[in-house]
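Allow me, if you will, to draw on your knowledge of protein folds for a short while. The matter concerns a single protein, recorded as an amino acid sequence and a row of backbone structure tokens. Kindly check, if you would, that the fold set down in the tokens agrees with what the sequence suggests. You will find the record immediately after this paragraph.
***
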Amino acid sequence: MGYAAFIKRCGAYVLDQLILAVIILPLAYLLFNDASVYSNQSQSSFLGLYILVGWIYFAKQESSRAQATWGKKLLAIKVTDSNGEKISFAKASGRFFSRFVSAMLYGIGFLMAAFTKQKQALHDKMCDTYVVTSETDASFFKNTSGPKKSTDHISTQLKSLDELRQKGVLTDSEFEESKKKLLAKVYN
């Protein structure tokens, strides 16, 4: 139970790319069979097809009840939000397209998953998502090892509340009530 190992994430990605190839190559042959494979138009069309099918493949499956693509399912990992819940199609779409940022940085965005405490790649950090083992449930994110228990997160929210109190936006009693609610969420 916990964050997915970097090697499992890599394995799932390779499996997903193989699955995508099985889907995309026959489609590309049907759509572009009369075009020269080496023409710029054919290459652009193939790239557009790859992006479209890849987006639907990843976003639809990662936002599903399973929270995983076929490759992730085979390796018993899934994608979740910071509360341990399934992500929306919009967030899964953002996660898919932000992978291009991870790739544009010479792959360093992907490698971050091997070195960060919560095993997040750059695109995970950008979208506030986590890749965890399949048996990991929402309770993992409520205990001290989960992302929402960070003392930095708590202190930042407390500082923000205090600033609102100092600016007169919150009364002292509203500040105390908000502080109690924040601490109750964290320690329950």
